[in-house]
Amino acid sequence: MPSRRSLLRAGGTFVLATLASSPASAQAAAGSSDPWHKMPHILRKIRPPRFPNRRWDVTAFGAVGDGTTDCTAAFKAAIIECHRNGGGRVVVPPGRFLTGAVHLLSNVELHVSEGGVIAFSTDPNAYLPVVFTRWEGTECYNYSPFIYAHGQRNVAVTGKGTLDGQARQGPWESWYADGGPQGGDQRALREMGDEGVPVEQRVFGAGHYLRPAMVQFVKCQNILVSDVTILEPPMWTVNPVLSTNVTVRGITVVSTLYNTDGCDPESSSYVHIQGCRFDTNDDCVAVKSGRDADGRRVGVPSENVVVQDCYFSGRWGGITVGSEMSGGVRNVFAERCVINSPDFPGHYPVKYPVYIKASKKRGAFIEGVYVRDFTGRNVEREVIFVNMAYNSHEGGTEPVSVRDIRMERTRLDGAGAVLNLVGLETDHLVGVRLEKCVFTNITGPDKIAFTDGLSMRKVLVDGVEQ
User: Fold this and answer.
1) pLDDT means per 10 residues in the chain (466 residues)?
2) Is 401 in contact with 365 (CB distance < 8 Å)?
3) Which residues of 297-446 form beta strands (DSSP E)?
4) Gap between the Cα atoms of 84 and 74, Å rounded
5) All domains of the chain, ordered by start, with CATH?
6) Contact between 375 and 411 (Cβ < 8 Å)
7) Quick one: which H or E segment has residue 193?
8) Which of 85, 188, 234, 235 is the most exposed, having the fewest neighbouring CB atoms within 10 Å of its CB?
9) Distance (Å, rounded) from C-alpha 133 to C-alpha 217?
10) Rg of the Cα trace of the chain?
11) Predicted pLDDT of residue 17
């Protein structure tokens, strides 16, 4: 029987999760074998790129680490020379190097030495001409991301140095804050995507106000982002798009502008995010696959994503899926992550350690989000929030499926509730399982609607087994 915690007042009636036998719950039970056996196979297929033992120092191409000299041309020349000679390491030595867009080429590792800082220009013109990109899940041409690669193989950003986006010194916040001009361009791009306007006609950039991502790889293979500290991105921080074999490890992200996720694998597969620290003004890790009709047109899912040993201090979700998930998402694994650690407190407390966002406007599917061995404290809202009615004011009639969401061996102290599960009357949420979890200092009841196959086994909430 459901506990007193599993009631939701919805449409004037109480809606209960389906715990007994039904076709949907039987189907969920049929898929109840341990999914974690997949993870070692996934990790074996993820291999960081390796580079020839050759190096090119950007100062040999005219870069000056005084924080004021424009080093854009020097970075470009060093990268081209490294690429032409079969690849290797482009080195940024100690110093503060000011630059515009940095475009990586195949077989190039951009290495920022300890004490080295790449400071990105606050002038939007430094990120022109426009490049092919995805902006909030819709394809277009826009300002270049600060570090960008398109269609390349074996690319990396490494080192103990810093990438400083200087976003608070630039115009980026004014573009969206207080009804800024980004809203008009955002609506225009979304309409273009919904109406099927050819991508080559979706041109923004100069005279427009769509903030670029910080580090973006589009249609690339064999990617490594390692050890760097990334400060104040203008928007999403590390964003692999339509890419495969991606490793993001040991990075620290500190972002305070709105909508500055930490790492967004988007329509990408075989992604390993390990040992990272995210202090963000949005989601920490957000798995995505395109938005609405344009995302369904591209139709490439994100799949086989593994997140391990990270610190989450972002404003919204810890491990998040969506909301731009119209190409589908499957097989997301997250383990041994820490929520709101006193050793890494961040600017904002995590609202939801697990946050899944879908809707009938997005359509598509989320199949298999597996979480275990999370620890932490002071969760602002629910431990798990699955919202299949995300931004329901946008409407939509697409079928949407969310199923097989699991949490195991998790211990969290302090939250508004354990579960907030929002399925749809037309599209139920199927197969949520919690096992061997301990939650203390929980202040409110669970809310559950249109959910089939909910299972709680050896779950203690304030000392009471559910």
Assistant:
1) 40 41 42 86 98 98 98 98 98 98 99 98 98 98 98 98 97 95 97 98 98 98 98 98 98 97 98 98 98 98 98 97 98 98 94 98 98 98 98 94 98 98 98 98 98 98 96
2) yes
3) 302-308, 311-312, 317-321, 329-335, 338-339, 352-357, 364-372, 375-377, 382-387, 400-408, 411-415, 417-422, 429-442
4) 15
5) 48-260 (2.160.20.10)
6) yes
7) helix 182-195
8) 85
9) 9
10) 22
11) 54
Asked if residues 286 and 259 have their Cβ atoms less than 8 Å apart, the reply is no
Q: Could you check whether the bond before residue 323 is cis, i.e. omega within 30 degrees of 0?
A: yes
* Residues in Cβ contact with 460 at an 8 Å cutoff, skipping those fewer than 6 apart: 437, 438, 439, 466
Sort strands 464-465 and 455-461 into parallel, antiparallel or unpaired: antiparallel
81 touches 60 (CB < 8 A): no
The C-alpha atoms of residue 314 and residue 354 are separated, in whole angstroms, by 12
Cβ neighbourhood burial of 207 (10 Å; 0-12, 13-18, 19+): exposed
Residue 88 to residue 52: CA distance in whole angstroms:
5
Distances (CA, A) of 45 to 154, 246, 271, 306, 437: 15, 10, 10, 12, 31
**Residue 52: Cβ within 10 Å count:** 13
Q: What is the DSSP letter of 29?
A: H
Residue with tokens 């957000």: 286
How many residues can be counted in the chain? Answer: 466
Contact (Cβ atoms closer than 8 angstroms) between residue 436 and residue 409? yes
